[in-house]
Design a protein that fits this description.
Blueprint (H helix, E strand, L loop, with lengths): L2 H13 L2 H8 L3 H15 L4 E4 L2 E4 L1 H28 L3 E8 L6 H10 L7 E8 L1 H9 L5 E4 L7 E10 L1 E5 L20 E4 L6 H9 L7 E5 L2 H9 L5 E3 L10 E5 L6 E9 L6 H19 L1
Parallel strand pairs: 3-4, 3-5, 8-9
Antiparallel strand pairs: 1-2, 5-12, 6-12, 7-10, 7-11
Helix pairs in contact: 1-2, 1-3, 1-4, 2-3, 5-9
Length: 296
């Protein structure tokens, strides 16, 4: 089995017509028939059956087509990536936590692309929770990710952002006009918290562990914007990180007095794994960029 046979198979599977497929592939019809026959003999199954002048995929052929198209797509994307690099371009597959597309990520990327080394770099963006991002990072789906920190000896985490948590309450709540608040003052309120799979959840658990008793947990939600919406509609109160969305909702975000536990965002990469020159340059740039931002 070789690459030519797989491309011949994919073309014939799409067109379902030997003459048309041979013309598109710029080969003779006997050559195409010979290649498909050799492929079927090697696999030990029949991939096509005759339907009048056309052909149709068998059940085995349909299964094989799914895998072949995925493999060819991966190969073609890899070839195109290398061609872009050879033309002086590069692509960074960057993953980040949902909700980070409002400030940190676009600010850092746009600033990098204004530098001499970043002008020819294209970014592809992906969002997920921390676990999904780290799984994708280790599976080589992403080059770098912005995420929370987890116990993972294979990954290097570099702190790039930290900010205190806020108690978020609906407008008109008894605590809404406070400048600061202690979390234990909300023990009689229904609370909305992050799901266990959210990267932010360990921080929230540490905050709740300090309370004399646990409040009533009304809802467990994965996404921070959904939690904010529920707070705005008076389903409960919640501990949230800084979010631009809060400025457009009828809520009040009040700093917590226990400010030692903060929302921390890390730039993560796999230890010892090759990073393209562009990805290395962006990682260095982020270090300097966040340092300069912190000095302002």
């Amino acid at each position: 089995m070789n690459l030519y046979q797989l491309r011949y198979f994919a073309t014939l599977a799409r067109l379902e017509h030997y003459t048309q497929a041979a013309a598109e592939l710029n080969i003779t019809q006997p050559s195409l028939s010979h290649a498909i026959g050799a492929l079927e003999r090697e696999l030990g199954v029949t991939l096509f059956e005759r339907v009048g002048r056309n052909v149709a995929l068998t059940r085995e052929g349909r299964l094989f087509r799914q895998e072949v198209e995925k493999a060819l797509d991966i190969l073609d994307r890899g070839v195109e990536h290398l061609r872009e690099i050879s033309r002086g371009q590069d692509i960074i597959n960057l993953g980040f936590l949902r909700g980070m597309g409002g400030t940190l990520v676009p600010e850092a990327v746009s600033a990098f692309q204004r530098t001499e080394g970043g002008k020819q770099v294209e970014f592809r963006f992906f969002t997920d929770n921390t676990k999904g991002l780290l799984d994708g990072l280790e599976a080589r789906k992403y080059d770098l990710v912005f995420c929370s920190q987890e116990e993972d000896s294979r990954v290097t985490f570099e702190l790039v952002y930290s900010a205190p948590y806020f108690l978020t309450v609906p407008e008109g709540h008894p605590l809404a006009q406070r400048e600061r608040v202690r979390l234990e003052e909300t023990l009689d309120d229904p609370h909305i918290i992050f799901a266990q799979t959210a990267g932010i959840r360990p921080d929230i658990d540490r905050l709740y562990a300090r309370l004399p008793r646990q409040p009533k947990i009304a809802y467990v939600i994965q996404e921070d914007q959904d939690i904010a919406g529920l707070v705005a509609h008076r389903f409960g109160v919640a501990v949230l990180p800084p979010m631009a969305l809060l400025n457009s909702l009828p809520v009040r975000a009040i700093p917590l007095e226990s400010g030692d536990i903060q929302r921390r965002i890390y730039l993560a990469s796999v230890k010892g794994r090759y990073l393209s020159p562009a990805a290395q340059a962006f990682r260095r740039f982020v270090r300097d960029f966040r340092q300069k931002q912190g000095e302002k």
